[in-house]
Amino acid sequence: MGEILKAYIVPHPPIIIPSIGKGEEKAISSTIESYHEIGKEIKELAPEVIIVTTPHGPTYTDYIHISPGKKLKGSFKNFGAPNETMEFESESNLIDSIIEASNQLGIDAGYEGAQEDLDHGAMIPLYFITRYYTDFTLVRISIAGLPLEQLYNFGYCIQKVVSDYNKNVVFVASGDLSHRLLESGPYGFAPEGPLFDRTLADIIKEVDFKKLISIDQELCYKAGECGLRSFVIMAGALNGLNVNSKILSYEGTFGVGYMVAELTIDGQDLSRDLFSFFEFKNLSEVEATKKCEDAYVKLARESLEYYVKTGLVLDPPGHLPPDMISQRKGVFVSIKKHGNLRGCIGTISPAYGNVAEEIIYNAISAGTRDPRFNPVKKSELKDLLYSVDVLEEPEPISSIDELDVVRYGVIVTSGSRRGLLLPNLEQVDTPDQQVEIALYKAGISKDEPYKMERFEVIRHN
Questions:
Q1: Which of these, 107, 248, 268, 326, could form a disulfide with 260 (CB 3.0-4.6 Å)?
Q2: Per DSSP, what are the bridge partners of residue 151?
Q3: CB-based contacts of 268, cutoff 8 Å, min separation 6
Q4: Are 304 and 335 in contact (CB under 8 A)?
Q5: pLDDT 10s digits, 126-170
Q6: Is 226 within a domain?
Q7: Residues 281, 274: Cα–Cα separation, whole Å
Q8: Are residues 264 and 301 in the same domain?
Q9: How far is Cα 116 from Cα 181, in angstroms, rounded to an integer?
Q10: Residues 334, 146 contacting (CB under 8 angstroms)
Q11: Secondary structure in 3-state letters for 140-158
Q12: What is the pLDDT, as a whole number, of residue 145?
């Protein structure tokens, strides 16, 4: 039986490497001292595996990339130090088990995608660790654009797999804090920069992972943060455990927040089991929604579930409302998972015999053919919520002033290119935004001539 012995939050400034900093690294001496302290601790812990999460590996919106291959290697050649190289054995069996466990939970993870060398987010902590300890294999995991709750759940998959494995692990979450602490910094100054760093430091001091997951996303964006998603995966790996924390150092000398922290595990604490809390909350929400869904939403859900489970297209069931059988209209089916879009496909004009068939085929397409997402897996079905928009006949408009983002959707057309945006969408607050997004979807430049139409929908959710 394996266990996670300890976890660390570390920054990754390339300038901290002497052959890169050439003396400038002395300005972040506290960070360097903390790194050496970590190296000595890890030598004493003697883990057989080190897991590193990094924001700078191959990164995808809805897919977690884990570095493949028997050997993982890299160098600092991109930072002017080509002779600084490293190479590690990969812990392939552990990786395979992590991938299997996460996929069973409906979280896509694997080896597919870009096959890059180790990035600086992984190499910088490894540079200091290997000054003291080298008898370990490595797992490098990249962050993804998934909701923070799902990244936390992925981290919990890691914990469960490690507990069934035969080797002990140290978890290293690599990531800087804000990049907007000083005007002289890489991205200038924003007042949200220092606020984010203080907020994150307080969260780690309190070991409040619920606050970590619910941190204000606008604050994160304006602060130009780097490592949050890496830290969330680490937090998930410590789910349900009694964790004590200590911040070893914090510096913002170069306009970027560098925090080093250690998280020590002291047995279990079921009051900190956020994974079970999220599972119950999401299940309750989905079950409550199912009880309220009308015939349109129910048909969308049953169509995708039937297709994912059997590979077959559902025949329209009997006893549907007459309008679903007699009318032909365009239909859009939207799918959400944990509050985030999971797929949306539709038809501006009717393509099938009636509204029911539009729903059936567009629900299948939304779940399996939206190019922005991987196809929905069977394990995800229990987490999905659906909405169905039935489009009314579009009408031409001559001015953007005739739009209302809550009431009307918009269609833009230039030649054979056509883009649509539904009404009443989150984070679409103005007609200008609405048209801009529709133009982008159609591949139409703002400077090209185009026509606009508006339409209303009957929304079922």
A1: 248
A2: none
A3: 240, 241, 242
A4: yes
A5: 999 999 999 999 999 999 999 999 999 999 999 999 999 999 999
A6: yes
A7: 10
A8: no
A9: 31
A10: no
A11: EEECECCCHHHHHHHHHHH
A12: 92
Hey, what are 13's tokens?
């400034």
Residue 430 lies in a domain: yes
Q: Measured between alpha carbons, how far is 72 from 139 in angstroms, rounded to an integer?
A: 9
Instruction: Give the pLDDT band of residue 27 (cuts 50, 70, 90).
Output: very high
For 65-115, what is each residue's pLDDT tens digit?
Answer: 999 989 999 999 999 999 999 999 999 999 999 999 999 988 999 998 877
Q: What's the structural domain count of the chain?
A: 3
Say whether both 78 and 209 belong to one domain.
Answer: yes
- N-terminal to C-terminal alpha carbon distance within the chain: 46
pLDDT band at 406 (very low <50, low <70, confident <90, very high): very high
**Domain of 297: which CATH number?**
3.30.700.20
Instruction: Check whether residue 98 and residue 193 sit in a common domain.
Output: yes
Please give the residue range of the domain that contains residue 453: 392-461
Lookup: tokens for 35: 């790194």
Q: Which of 191, 216, 193, 215 is nearest to 203 (CA)?
A: 215
CB atoms within 10 A of CB 73: 12
Q: How far is CA 298 from CA 89, 161, 209, 301, 362, in A?
A: 50, 36, 36, 5, 13
Query: What kind and span of H or E run contains 454?
Result: strand 451-455
- Side chain identity at residue 128, one-letter code: F
Residue 56 CA, distance from chain mean position: 14
pLDDT at 461: 87
Is a pLDDT exceeding 80 seen at residue 420? Answer: yes
The radius of gyration of the chain's CA atoms, rounded to the nearest angstrom, is 25
Task: Work out the percent of the chain whose per-residue pLDDT is above 90.
Answer: 88
Same domain, 446 and 307: no
**Whether residue 122 sits in one domain with residue 84:** yes
Cα angle 11-14-20, degrees, rounded to a multiple of 5: 150
DSSP 307-321: HHHHS-PPPPPSS--
CATH code of residue 425: 3.30.1490.150
Q: How far is CA 192 from the centre of its chain?
A: 22
Q: Which residue has the tokens 């001091």?
A: 205
Q: The tokens 């935004």 sit on which residue?
A: 433
Same domain, 186 and 300: no
- Reported in sequence order, the residue ranges of 117-168 that DSSP labels E, i.e. its strands, are 137-142
Residue 285 in domain? no
- With a cut of 90, say whether residue 284 has pLDDT above it: no
pTM of the predicted structure, to 2 decimals: 0.81
- Say yes or no: 147 and 78 in one domain: yes
Domain termination site, one of 275, 307, 327:
275
- State how far the Cα of 328 lies from the Cα of 344, in Å rounded to an integer: 20
Q: Which of 337, 367, 384 is the last residue of a domain?
A: 384
